[in-house]
């Protein structure tokens, strides 16, 4: 069950994820660090699992794990939708991993 504190954290995550430019990706850990909660990358993942309910929309497909793997793809209801969304934005994905991850990585900032 999501607590009030979780809800506030989730909203902070969503606000940051909405800033990720099209064609770029970031990681759960980078978001957690940007929010001052370096140890909360798993909680960022939980936020991404419920992002489809958020308004305005959250581009959760742009958040991957620390090595560029599409570890959250099951949350999209299809094993290929996350990859399709990224590829529609020009991000190349092979074997569930972002190709040239360092080049398309977006470092979030809250400042």
TrEMBL record:
Record's keyword terms, sorted: DNA damage
Domain Methylated-DNA-[protein]-cysteine S-methyltransferase DNA binding: 9-91
InterPro entries: ATL_DNA_repair (IPR052520), MethylDNA_cys_MeTrfase_DNA-bd (IPR014048), MethylDNA_cys_MeTrfase_DNAb (IPR036217), WH-like_DNA-bd_sf (IPR036388)
Identification of the protein by name: MGMT family protein
């Amino acid at each position: 069950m999501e607590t009030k504190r979780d809800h506030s954290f989730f909203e902070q995550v969503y606000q940051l994820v909405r800033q990720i430019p099209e064609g770029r990706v970031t990681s759960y850990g980078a978001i957690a660090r940007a929010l001052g909660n370096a140890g909360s990358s798993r909680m960022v993942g939980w936020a991404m699992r419920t992002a489809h309910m958020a308004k305005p929309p959250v581009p959760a497909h742009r958040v991957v794990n620390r090595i560029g793997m599409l570890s959250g793809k099951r949350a999209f209801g299809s094993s290929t939708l996350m990859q399709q969304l990224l590829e529609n934005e020009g991000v190349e994905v092979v074997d569930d991993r972002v190709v040239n991850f360092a080049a398309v990585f977006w470092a979030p900032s809250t400042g």
